[in-house]
Write the structure tokens for this entry.
Amino acid sequence: MLDTTVFNCNVLTLPKIHNRAGNITALNNFRDIPFDVNRVYYLYDVPGGEDRGGHAHRELQQLVVAVSGSFDITIDDGRNKKTISLNRPYYGLHIIPEIWRDLTNFSSGAICLVLASHKYDANDYIRDYEQFIQMKTCK
Ligand code: TYD
């Protein structure tokens, strides 16, 4: 992917099927999500004041949804930063490769659902911010 800036990370409005008994959001590969989903995971029981993330991925794309509660995601492409508050189960932040992310301000009981384009691979992580900046500025 050539142009991996924060401006290419969009908040998608996800479909909502509503009736008086509540809502359903169903996500289909490629139709509602701009990549093929190969892994689903979720963060929960995040203690008050704890942060998550603090890394970038080389190849991985993700759709991040606050299915319950709320949290903030700061995305960073080495030049620009953007903070997005996720607080509804029908919004999903699409994070493209080579974007640093920090997840903060988890509300009590928040659940962060992540749909990911690849299976877990420790080698896909960039955990050193200096290395990330170097990688972005060498392009
Ligand atoms: P990490 O992705 O660093 O968490 P976060 O970005 O939410 O702070 O992962 C935390 C730990 O969990 C790390 O040891 C790797 C492990 N892990 C897996 O084994 N499989 C997975 O799919 C994920 C996302 C993490």
The helical segments are 129-137. The longest strand covers residues 62-68.
